[in-house]
Each structure stands twice: as structure tokens, then as C-alpha cells.
């Protein structure tokens, strides 16, 4: 195995594959940062516009209100409380919009809390009254208020949807992206070049003749691919992280950021880390099997991508389907990954490796 | 000559619907150099691939000293100098030698000796893609010689070699006559083959036929292949 | 040379699997649409029944015989809408909807929400009315369920509250279950880019595979007087023609399947487009109604027949395929590693599906629906149709790619010729 690993390293070195990996990883990391920045900018301008539109509508309503009397009649107390809440909401939305436009995320978080508090007040007097301006219903307001108060207390800022350029958040999302099975299989088709280079040419005969057991070739390739994937992820993550630190804006997100009441960003990242090696193992075995079974590279890519995308996105047995667990999180990262899916992932990975071993031993080279 | 028992029993193999061997048999009982002769595309390389387990027979067995050859046994007992397309073009000769030597625990002194013998030291640090056909051929033979396997298979070792290199290989094969190794050499260069051995395995139709050719392989080749023959599995014994 | 290329591609088993894969995606898309439409219609029936029951309870007086005539007619219309929905009768549903638009609060959704309630621009309500009138004029059945017209960025520009998001989706999500309609759907969701990714999966290495395994397979062609420029042009021709052929073969088979499955649909069906037009006056009474009805001014929402839309889309598709062919050759020329070239060519179109719309995003200009319907004209604040400009732009870029692919080669050949003429070779 050690000798095989040295040979693999020599092959990677002599062919300049390591340079290619570094190059592609930097481009991918930079592109991921760029696209996220772009998406986030669009999202922020939409948020600012919505807040502005909501505050304009509120302003229009409040303009028609007569001046507040010095002494409020008893039966009008509730009405004037509602007007007060609307005024607070107006100010909070307008200031929130300004803070968002200026990119001042801490201010935005403060005004977001103020907006939610005013919405809560308003909803007390008019059921679902804030929804007209803020698009938030009462349950959402309560949930977000709890989260935002925690964020304010811990000096963090709000992530509105799935886009954030705070280093921890963007890195977690990057790894969700890299580990999304249809994307990962694409990466592994490239990163598992060592296997393809041997088995799509006659050079594998040289390897097979000089090993005691053919499974050594398979295991070594598996380890090499995991190492190359780790290298790729490291460089990719490093690039995105550095760009996020330098140009990411003023967001502050800690590992304790509550994605849901049950899950924090740190927990999500930790579970993702636990899934990383098994999913790479599983899909590498898939690519190995594909290379041995499907002679034509285009057909191979098509089959592997379609099968992995199919298993990922078909809406069956999602909770125990590790592919679906990883795939759907890319679109909805707040939901926690089901750790039990890891068991089925390990079973599938083990079975696929067994299949590759059988193919390798029965193959007519 | 040392006693050995290499046996091919009822070997059948086909590429899709094209049968290459149908219940072919061959028994070689002693060490030494054997020639393997047959027309282009008759299945000489296929036989070597079957022996080394790179191809799997549909039927039959190949044994060495009574034990069926498994990948583990092939690794320990068989060396194969095949065509040079199995080398990684972007690696150097030394990269390949280092790998094979480490895998088979070959001492540095032996590497040096074999490299000297095959005269590859001048180009051993060049990438395979930049070597000539003859240089690649010599490198392949070095890689096959390193493990000192009991059974050595050489597929067209004289292809593309200059006269000096041919002489080196001829001397090498002469040396094998006095060792405990069994060497099977496939070649179209019947003149050269005649110079090193008179024990020839002919690939005839879908079978193997072993003969000791006193009058030279060329005359026998003409007899065997220049006339149409009925399809019949052949048996050979040494 | 052409024959040799075709033989190579045939032997590499690229053509049939590509067609099969395209076909699987097309049929899968149709089946998914049909399945989701079935689900939506069933839900619509249930919600409609519940809503009618609820509404009956709220009308005063309780006795239906004593209802006011307007309440009675409104309720009758709703019940008729439900019956027609159950019969899946698009023609009758269209008539009901046209009638709904004579009411103060038209209800074309099945959840009891009036369409003007859901924070929609009056421009969208106007567009829906126009579409219904178009359908009536040509006596066409509506697609099921009947939905309101939105623009591609409605979800971004409207303030749809959380509790109304489901209603909004129900009001706007269309299901394209017939043959021609499916092609229209693909145009709106970036189907052309998906098709390019699939085609590139098979033909994306057409030039790079000549340099695979560190050996230049083109060397022997050059020996037979086939220069590299000639080879690139031949490969371009083969790539372009085969791309078109494979796509249209798959499309042809798909249309036969769709015809047998749900029918092909009517090519006169109205498709929303944007063109310079007179300002409209909204009949709705809120203060900004007329302004919102003219949201796209100076452009206005207009309707063109599906045949025209598909024709323009088809021609746009040819242009994109040509650009793809030239780009493939250029990328292959630059990246000679076969696998890398192949992966780049597959990933490239897919990136277009995830990048946000922006004037800085080149894929925005390749959004077939935006180009054909001229929504891109509004996006770029143009008064006239951007279609010819985009086609022209694609042509220029394609030729540029081709020149970039050939130019360095020509220089090489030129060098060779120069050397020959000076007697050095």
C-alpha cells in the first residue's frame, strides 16, 4: 500500500495534477464566494426594498391619522397603542432598510429586533396586523424575535436566508455545496483521475501484476482520493475564507448561531464533518465501479450524475437517505442533518467497495 | 535443467463470440527457454494474459507445480515483460523500477546489475514518453527480471530493438538456459528464436502444440500455417 | 473527414446515449408536470369545496332563497367553477374566469382568495384579464388550473406575506402538461442550458480527445493534407449538426410521446410578452392601480401565439447551439486534458442556472424566455425588442470563439509555410 501511495504521488507530481487541483480549488472557492456575494447583494437589496415599501405603506396610513389628543378617551386607548406600534414599526423598517442599504449589519440586526417587537405589539391589537407590512406572521415573529435577541446579546448579526459572507457561515455552506452528492460526484470524477488514468488505459495491468492482492489498488486509490479531496476542500475553503475575511462585509456569525431552535451553526458544521469522509468514500467507490463497468467516459459521467442526482432528489425515505440529507441541506441549511443517515451511508459505501473489489478480481483486463 | 511443472489444462477463452482457446492443453516439465509462435492475432498475448490472471478463462485451469495460479501466486512466481503501453508515459524509468523493486523487495545491487546488463542507465531518468520503442522494450525486460520469478513470460521482446539490443537479449536468454527459471518467449523473429531454443509452443487453431524442432522453427511454421488446417484442439507435452 | 468524425463518435457510443438521456429528461419533465398538476387539481377541488361551504355560512341572511341577487350569482359562479374544475374542463373554466372578471372581486383561485388581495400588482391582474380575453377571442381552453399571469420577477418585487405564500403559489404556478407547452416550460426554466450540459457531456471533448493520452492523434491527419484549421472547421460542423440532430431527434420522439400521453396542445395559446404599447387604465380602485398596471412602461404586457414564441425560441436555440459548438472547440483548444475539457463544458451551462439575473451576468442574456418574450427589454430598460441584438451578439461571440480557436493554428501553419518557402524545411 505504501509503495502504491508513493507511486500515486509520483503520478500526481509528474503529471502536474496537484497544480491543477490547486488551480481548480482556488477558482471554485473564489467563484463560490463571488456567487454568494452576488446572491447576498441581491437579497439585501430586495430586503431593503421590501422594508422601504412596507414603511411607505405604513407612512401612507399614518399620514391620514388625526393628531393624538392630549387626553385619550378610555375607549380609544387601544387604538392609540396600535398607532404607536405602527409608528415604531415604521421607524424600525425605515431605519432597518437604511442600515441594510449601507451594509451595516449590526445596526440592521438592532432595527430588525425593534421591527419584530413593534410587530408583536401591533399583532396584539390587530391580529396578524404586521403581516401586511412585514410579510411575517405571528409565529415567525415570535421565533425570529427569540433568535434575534440572542444574536443581539452575543454580538452577532442576522442571516436572512441561506446566504451569508461571515467566514463561519460561508464555509459551512461551501462544504454543504461540495458534499452535495451530484456536485461531489462531479468533483470526484476529476479528483479520481488516478483510477481513470489507470483503468481507461492499459497501465492498470502494470499495477495489477505487481500487487499481491488487487484490492490493495482499490484501497490505495480510495485513500488517495480522500486525501486529494481533503486537499481540494482545504484550498477551496481557504480561498473562500480569506475572501470572506477580506471582502465579506460586516456580518458577525459565531458557531453558536441558532440555525433553528434545535441546531446551531457549529453543530451543523460538526455533523457535516462527520459525514464528509463516508460520503467521499461512498461516491469514490461509485466512480471506481463506474470506471470498471462503463467504458465510455461520457456515458459514465451521465450515469453517475443522474444516479446520484436521482437518489438525492427523489422524495422517498429522505430522513434515512444520506444523499438526500446532504443534497437538500444545500437549499435549506437550517434543517439539521439526521445523524442516523450515516449508518445507511456506511452500509452503502461498504457494499459499493465490495462490488468494486469483485469487479476488479473478475475483470478481464 | 530443474524440474518444474507448468500446466495448462482444458483452457478455453473467447473474446465475445470469437474463441481463442478451446480446451487447450500444455505441460512443461523443466526449466529452460521455450518459444511461443503463432500468426498475428492468434492469441499469444492472450495466453500470457491468461497465465498472469489479467484475463480469466471461461473454462480450465493454469497451474504451477500443481497449484492453480492466483493473483498472489502470480505476484510471487510470475514475471511478465509485456508490451510497453502498460508503462505510465509521464513517469520515468526509475519511477517504475523503484515501484517494482519495493513491491518485490529487490536489493539495490540487483537493480544496478540488471540495469547494467540491459544497458538502461543512460535513459532511466527520462520520462517513458520520451523513450524510443527499443528503450521502452529494454525497460520492460528490466522490470520483469527484477523479481527473479520462477516463470518469466516475454511478449515479443525483440520488437523494435537495434542489433546491439537484440544481442543483449539473446545473451540474456542464453543465460536462462542454465538457471532454475522457466522462460516463455513469444516472437515472430524465428531466426533469433532458433538461436536460443528448439523447444517451441505453436498456437495452432484454438489449441497449443508443443514441439522440439530440430530443423528450425521457420520450416515448421511454414508447414503449420501456410496451409489451411481443420479446426481441432491440440495437445502439447514436454 | 466528416465521415471519419461521425464514425469515431458512433464507435465511441456517444450519439444514442445522448439522445436517450435527453429523452429521459424530457419525458421525466412531462411526467413530473402531469403528476404535480394532478395533485394540485385535487387539492384545488378540496379547498374549493371547503371554501364554498364556509362562504355559504357567512352570507346573511342564512336562507339561500333570501340571498341578495349579487351574492346568489357570485355563489352560483363559484359552484359552477368547482363543477368545471372537477370535469377538468378548460374551456368552461375559461368562461367562468371571464365572468369572474365582471365581478368587483374576481376569484379565480380555488382557496377563496380574491386575486387582488394577494399583494399583486394590478399589472398582473390586468395581464390575466387580457389573457382571458385572448383565449375567449380564439375560443381556446385554459391550462389547468387557471392561474394569474406574473412577470419573471414578481416574487422579488411583491410583498407576499408568509401566510399568503401558499396562496400566491397556488395562484401563479402553472403546469405545462402538453407537448408544445412543455417546450415553453423548458424555455422558462433554463431547459436549453440543461440540454447544452447533456450534449456537452457527450460532445464536450470533440477536439480534446484528439490529444488524449499525451499523443496527438491529429498528426496523421496532417500527413494526409488535412490542416488543423480544416479539422477544426470540420469538427465545428459535425458538432453543430449533431447537436441539432440529437436535440431534435429527442424532441421529435418526445413530441410523439407527449401527443399520445396528453396531446400536443394548441399553438395559438397566448404567451406573455413585452412590447411598446399604449398606457392602460386599470379598472381597480386603489390609488396606485393605474401606475402599477403600467409597471413596465414604456413597455406593456402583450400576448403572442405559442407558435410564434416557439419559433423565436427555436431560432434562438440554433444560435445558442452554434455558440456552444464554437465555445466547445475553443475550450478544447485551450484545455487539452479530455476529462477537464468535458467537465468544464458540462459545468459551464449549469452555472447559468444558479447565477442571479444581472446585467453583469452573461447568462441573463441567454435566458431564452426573457429574450423571446422581451422581458429582457424591460430589464435592460429598452424600448424595442432586444431579440435581434441578442442573436447578433451571440453570432459575433461565436465567430470570435471560432477565430480564437483557429488563429493560433493558422499562425503555426503560416510559420511552417514560411519555413518551407525559405527552404528551411
What key attributes describe this structure?
heterotrimer; A: 365 residues; mainly alpha; 15 helices; 76% helix; C: 425 residues; 2 strands; 64% helix; elongated; disordered C terminus
Q: Could you give a short description of this structure?
A:
With 365 residues, chain A is mostly helical. Chain A is 76% helix and 0% strand.
Structural write-up:
The complex is a heterotrimer of chains A (365), B (238) and C (425). Chain A is an all-alpha fold and 365 residues long. Chain A has two domains: 236 residues; 90 residues, no CATH class. Chain A is built from 15 helices and no strands. Chain A starts with a helix and ends with a helix. In chain B, 45% of the residues are buried. The longest helix of chain B has 14 residues. In chain B, a hairpin with a 2-residue loop joins strand 1 and strand 2. A six-stranded mixed β-sheet of chain B has the order 6-7-8-3-9-10, with helices on both faces. Chain B contains eight helices and eleven strands. The C terminus of chain C is likely disordered. Chain C folds into two domains: 270 residues, no CATH class; 134 residues, no CATH class. The two termini of chain C are 27 Å apart. In chain C, helix 2 packs antiparallel against helix 9. Chain C is built from 17 helices and two strands. Helix content of chain C is 64%, strand content 3%. The interface between A and C is medium-sized, with 34 and 34 residues.
Tell me which oligomeric state these chains represent. heterotrimer
Task: Quickly count the helices of chain B.
Answer: 8
Q: Tell me, what is the CATH class of chain B?
A: Alpha Beta
Head-to-tail CA distance between termini of chain A: 21 Å
Structural class of chain A: mainly alpha
**Gap from first CA to last CA of chain B:** 13 Å
In the CATH hierarchy, the architecture of chain B is 3-Layer(aba) Sandwich
Task: Give the averaged pLDDT of chain B, no decimals.
Answer: 83
Strand portion of chain B = 25-35%
Q: Strands of the biggest beta sheet of chain B: in what spatial order?
A: 6-7-8-3-9-10
